[in-house]
Amino acid sequence: MEIIGVFPVLEITEEPELLTKAIISSGAIPQHAVRDAAHIAVNAVNDIDYLLTWNCKHLANAQIIRKVSVVCNTTIYTPEEPMGG
Hints:
Layout: H1 14-26, H2 34-45, E1 51-52, H3 62-71, E2 76-77
Parallel strand pairs: 1-2
């Protein structure tokens, strides 16, 4: 916790909530995975360069990334990908 304690906590405001709904409405992420859509939305709204995740079902998934990119611009990787893994 000491290591990550220096990072800012991103707030959930109306803008990422609206983007989450748009991602779900687009069909890019299924309704039951609304938390995954929210991760993408918070990332995009806060201009975070990368979202690192082990979630390959709804986030680091090539087909889903293509669908999400129609709604918002975000880059999603597993931790190994930026390192060439």
